[in-house]
């Protein structure tokens, strides 16, 4: 029989702004091809009125400086494989439901980013010892539903994270220039943090001595544990330990015999140390085989488990990851009213006939 190659597609959640999920269940490579990398936007795509690309660095530095794209390309570079996960990934699974883009499990992708360490870029500019945060401003802007006026997408990092040697000003993805939809010409890459920190279309960096107060910092990307009040709120930052079952698919029909259950797991602190599988809705658990990407400390892991099923019926399969910091995926997620950081055990139900 002639084999037909079937190509997956992104799953559209919104067109303006464009938000699309990666076909995560059908991707088996360490590096997500650019055309399958998920898209998350707050505004329409920015316009470029000239080709004079580069970065303006301002604030508590020795001199306000414009660094051209060409100069950045000439500097010493480094490459790291980093997964980027939208903080709202799996939002559709919260109970009770929360408002916002109803992401399933595909608001996460991974690839190799090349660029210059932000620390190296800023070192010659002599940051003031009173500096507390660094603000990153993209070219994308627009209106919000909850505030008057126009806003650029802007986020800050504490000095310690901004000057981590692996925080990059990236210009390549998977050995090619970053595409326009993913932040060309320059994108901030912040390993271990949710992807809202990795500002696209980066145009302006400002060093400040106080806490940044932009709406994408202190209104959005904040955990609100209470439905009616802001009591107990705290910022979204580091990735929470998580996993996704890629195969089999939810509500797939299988035959009896052997099946390989596969998936990925990731964390923002330490490394994934263990992944467990249950094929009886959490009554018993088995440790699975984990494969790591060599010499890449931020990469997700791939895992697999051979399941032999002899009896027909319905089965609920669950995956549960544990990281080196002792964090374990919970049975129930931490509910918060904006729907960030869903990391309850991954679950699919299958029928064996």
Helical/strand content category: mainly beta
The top-level CATH class of the largest domain is Alpha Beta
Shape: globular
Cα-atom radius of gyration: 21 Å
User: What is the CATH topology assignment of the largest domain?
Assistant: Sulfite Oxidase, Chain A, domain 2
Approximate strand percentage: 35-45%
Helix count?
4
| Architecture per CATH nomenclature, i.e. the level-2 architecture of the largest domain | Alpha-Beta Complex
Sequence stretches where pLDDT stays below 50 over 5 or more residues:
none
Q: Mean of the pLDDT scores?
A: 97
Strand order of the largest sheet: 4-3-12-7-8
By oligomeric state, this entry counts as single chain
User: Roughly what percent helix?
Assistant: under 10%
Distance between the termini: 25 Å
How would you describe this structure to a colleague?
The chain has 353 residues and is mainly β. The protein has two domains: 11-220, Oxidoreductase, molybdopterin-binding domain (Sulfite Oxidase, Chain A, domain 2, Alpha-Beta Complex), CATH 3.90.420.10; 242-352, Immunoglobulin-like (Sandwich), CATH 2.60.40. It has four helices and 23 strands. It has helices at 69-74, 118-122, 159-162, 215-218, and strands spanning 11-15, 18-21, 54-59, 65-68, 78-85, 108-117, 133-143, 150-158, 168-173, 176-177, 187-189, 202-208, 222-223, 234-235, 242-247, 253-254, 257-266, 272-278, 286-287, 289-291, 301-309, 313-323, 346-352. A five-stranded mixed β-sheet has the order 4-3-12-7-8. Strands 5, 6, 9, 10 and 11 form a five-stranded antiparallel β-sheet that branches. It has a five-stranded mixed β-sheet with strand order 16-23-22-18-19, with no helix packed on it. A hairpin with a 7-residue loop joins strand 18 and strand 19 (286-287). 38% of the residues are buried.
């Amino acid at each position: 029989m002639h084999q037909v190659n079937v190509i997956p597609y992104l799953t559209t959640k919104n067109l303006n702004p464009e938000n699309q999920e990666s076909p995560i269940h059908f991707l088996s490579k360490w590096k997500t091809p650019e055309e399958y990398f998920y898209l998350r936007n707050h505004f329409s795509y920015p316009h470029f009125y000239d080709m004079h690309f580069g970065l303006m660095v301002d604030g508590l530095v020795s001199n306000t400086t414009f660094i051209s794209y060409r100069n950045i390309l000439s500097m010493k570079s480094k490459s790291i494989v980093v997964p980027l996960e939208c903080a709202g990934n799996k939002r559709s699974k919260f109970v009770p439901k929360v408002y916002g883009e109803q992401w399933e499990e595909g608001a996460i992708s991974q690839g190799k980013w090349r660029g210059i360490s932000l620390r190296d870029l800023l070192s010659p500019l002599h940051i003031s010892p009173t500096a507390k945060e660094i603000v990153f401003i993209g070219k994308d802007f627009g209106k919000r539903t909850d505030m008057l006026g126009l806003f650029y997408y802007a986020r800050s990092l504490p000095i310690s994270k901004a000057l981590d040697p692996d925080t990059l000003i990236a210009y390549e993805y998977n050995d090619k220039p970053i595409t326009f939809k993913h932040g060309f010409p320059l994108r901030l890459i912040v390993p271990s943090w949710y992807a809202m920190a990795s500002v696209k279309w980066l145009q302006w960096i400002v060093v400040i001595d106080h806490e940044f107060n932009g709406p994408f910092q202190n209104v959005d990307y904040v955990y609100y544990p209470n439905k009616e009040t802001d009591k107990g709120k705290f910022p979204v930052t580091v990735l929470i330990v998580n996993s996704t079952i890629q195969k089999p698919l939810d509500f797939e029909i299988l035959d009896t015999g052997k099946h390989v259950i596969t998936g990925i797991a990731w964390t923002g602190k330490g490394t994934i140390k263990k992944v467990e599988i249950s094929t009886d809705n959490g009554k018993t658990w088995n440790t699975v085989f984990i494969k790591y990407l060599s010499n890449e400390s931020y990469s997700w892991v791939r895992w697999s488990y051979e399941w032999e099923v002899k009896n027909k019926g319905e089965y609920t399969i669950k995956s549960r990851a544990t990281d080196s910091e002792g964090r374990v995926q919970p049975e129930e997620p931490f509910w918060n009213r904006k729907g960030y950081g869903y990391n309850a055990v991954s679950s699919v139900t299958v029928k064996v006939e």
